[in-house]
Amino acid sequence: MSELWRFLISNRDWVFEGIGVFVLTGIVVGIKYFLSARRKSAGSKEPTTTTMKVKADEFTVLTEENKQLKMKLSNDYIEKSKVASLRWKTLTTDEQNEYYQCFINLKPKLYKPKSVVVGTARQEELQRINPIDLTSLKSLFLTFGLSIDNIKLPIEADEYDRVHSMDVDSSEYLFKRAINGVNIEQKKCLDSVYDYLSAQELSADQEFQRKCDVIVVPGCRSDIKFRIDEAYRIWSISQAQLVITGYHPYYDENQALPIGEAEAMYFYLTNEKGLDVERFNVFVENRARNTLENVVHTLPILNKVRNLKGAPLNLILVTSPYHMRRFYFSTNKWLASERHIVHDIRCVVSSTYFNRGNWYLKSVNPKFADSYGVGVYIGEYFKIIGGRATGEF
Asked: How many helices (H) and strands (E) does the chain have?
């Protein structure tokens, strides 16, 4: 024993170093075991993370699988419009004109997307903030002998399908009655529907038109020329920034033409109206497939123009009379908290094939079904009800 003791004392540096390594190794192994057991008890898997992003005091793990999914969704979302835009820019003027003529001859379609209904309490709250007036629609239905039981807000989720589809039969009924002639009261109600949808009280006066900073024009199938004509008129007195927005609508998102709504408006603006785009920049937003996306994809452009100006913008919306109320509601909702970007919003309606005195009559344009005008106006009123029921505005 004394010899062993003398050996340990004489080699104490090595002994202490060995003990230190042993203890440190034990601590490391113990920590790894503890962490492994904790992951297993929580049901977690070994992370396959390659990147981390910080979000408000927490780390969100993005696995390789999640990243690939996000990339696919993003690519699916922009690829069609991106490819179409690239193809469009490579075409000659004659080829563009040929495709433009094909585009303006495409038949529009009455389309109402369906979404998830928000709770009635939320609908009532939105009604207090920005009321939707159903008086004109109810009066119209009553004067033509139609029920108004389902024309109401708020609506329950189980009522949504019925309300969502009732415009089809009612539009056809109204058209068949109207083409045989309308009395004074019915004519008054028909004009009232037009006035409400066209947002007459929000119209921009001449002074506002002269001082506006941005003109936003959403695309469509039927009224492109009318909308651009009106936007061009305002631009000629204001030199405001033009923003034209639209791709192919959801009901025709597989359309093969390499020209969407925004490109069609741009072609008309530059080739038929003669706007010098070398001097006056026009923003072409070619991703939006419905009214809400028109608004959402326009916001970054408005932010850019606001930064260039150095002050909040005066904005004018230009669209067809039947579309104006809903377009304004969507725009105002999204910009309500962005008053540092947009100071004021006003409206200017364009002309259309279906105006105040004839929207309920038989279409004279063979491009449209006989009752298309009635379907557009009544359908838009029900889209406004649907937009409130789903919390869009």
From this structure: 14, 7
Distances (CA, A) of 304 to 134, 145, 307, 313, 341: 37, 51, 5, 11, 9
State how far the Cα of 175 lies from the Cα of 347, in Å rounded to an integer.
28
* Residue 20 counted as domain residue: no
**Is the residue at 359 inside a domain?**
yes
Instruction: Tell me whether residue 370 is exposed, middle or buried, using C-beta atoms within 10 angstroms of its C-beta: 0 to 12, 13 to 18, 19 or more.
Output: middle
Shared-domain flag, residues 229 and 354? yes
- Cα–Cα dist 392/81, whole Å: 24
Domain that holds residue 83: 46-89
Overall domain count for the chain: 2
Q: Which helix (H) or strand (E) holds 15?
A: helix 12-41
Residuewise pLDDT in 10s, the chain (393 residues): 556 556 555 655 555 555 655 555 666 556 655 555 555 554 444 434 333 333 333 333 444 555 455 455 545 544 454 555 556 777 888 888 888 888 888 888 777 767 889 999 999 999 999 999 999 999 999 999 999 999 999 999 888 888 878 888 899 999 999 988 999 999 999 999 999 999 999 999 999 999 999 999 999 988 899 999 999 999 999 999 999 999 989 888 778 787 899 999 999 998 888 877 667 778 999 999 999 999 999 999 999 999 999 999 999 999 999 999 999 999 999 998 888 999 999 999 999 999 999 999 988 777 788 899 999 999 999 999 999 999 999
- The pTM for the full model equals 0.77
Cis peptide before 154 (omega within 30 of 0): yes
Could you tell me if 330 and 291 are in contact, meaning their C-beta atoms sit under 8 angstroms apart? yes
Instruction: Say if 329 falls within a structural domain.
Output: yes
Residue type, 193: V
**Residue 227 tokens, joined:** 């909308």
Q: What is the CATH number of the domain that holds 234?
A: 3.40.50.620
**Assigned token pair, 380:** 């838009």
